[in-house]
Amino acid sequence: MSVNVIEQVPAVPLNPEVPLVPVNPEVPEVPDKPEVPEVPGAPFEPVTITSQLDVSIDGGCDPLYIARRMIRMATEDIGNADPRALQLTLNAWDVQRRLGPPEGELALAQAVVYLAVAAKSNAVYAAWLAAREVVAAGGSEPVPIHLRNAATSLMASLGYGESYQYAHDFDEGFVPGERYFPEAVGEHVFYEPTERGLESKIREKLVYLRKLSAASDFQRYEDDSALEDAEQNNPKTP
Questions:
Q1: Is 46 helix (H, G, I), strand (E, B) or coil?
Q2: CB within 8 A of 53, min separation 6: which ones?
Q3: CB under 8 Å to 220, separation ≥6 — which residues?
Q4: Nearest residue to 199 via CA among 83, 73, 76, 71
Q5: What is the largest CA-CA distance in the chain?
Q6: Of 162, 172, 177, nearest in space to 230 by CA
């Protein structure tokens, strides 16, 4: 005896208690995109930069080498104007190393586009080169004695760490008038942040801290006897 299985399954009735989802009348219409003024010459389209990535990979260039060069761009040409560029590029390199194509190549393309539109600054790179020149010209001066760690009683007896100022005992977590260069080297300003991207905020902070330092009664190397006055005038000093 054959059984018609289809006839044995009852039809599932529609649930009358569940209303149909109405069209949301409160969703505003998307405004038209504002007109972009015409710029003479070819328009800047960062996605076209991926074509150069495609050409390099198609020509046999190792994608990991491309990722390495992109990391250099993130540090040399973008720097602290947008520190996210370095992390994104490192992530793309990691995806390529772990998974290979096509996922890795897509991650590289994403990073390339980000590098193209990120705020640019070579201030850190310029500071690094300037610092290397000073070191090369003057040799390696010893660490200032007030910054040395007195790990032994002998070191303590030699004055290591004497008059060291702990930054967290001061307002702003900063010791106005302190010096970290060796006295023989003098003071140098290597890093001059731009006013682009995050560096604009870093610039504001550096200007503020330098003003605090210049206005401080305590100036390292000029008058170490002012240490006691600096500690007494600082409200956070125990």
A1: helix
A2: 66, 105, 108, 109, 112
A3: 146, 177, 178, 179
A4: 83
A5: 111
A6: 177
* Cβ-contact 233, 176 below 8 angstroms: no
For 145-183, write each residue's pLDDT tens digit. Answer: 999 999 999 999 999 999 999 999 998 899 999 999 888
The tens digit of pLDDT for each residue in 92-141 reads 999 999 999 999 999 999 999 999 999 999 999 999 999 999 988 887 88
Residue 12 tokens, joined: 């599932």
Q: Report the pLDDT value the prediction gives residue 161, as an integer from 0 to 100.
A: 93
What's 41's DSSP letter? S
Instruction: Using alpha carbons, list the distances in angstroms from residue 131 to 26, 36, 74.
Output: 59, 43, 20
How many beta carbons lie within 10 A of that of residue 230, not counting itself? 20
* Residue 193, preceding peptide bond in cis (omega within 30° of 0): no
Give the predicted TM-score (pTM) of the model.
Answer: 0.69
The C-alpha angle with vertex 44 and arms to 75 and 101, in degrees rounded to 5, equals 60
Q: Which helix (H) or strand (E) holds 126?
A: helix 123-138
Q: How far apart are CA 149 and CA 158, in angstroms?
A: 11
* 187 neighbors 213 (Cβ within 8 angstroms): no
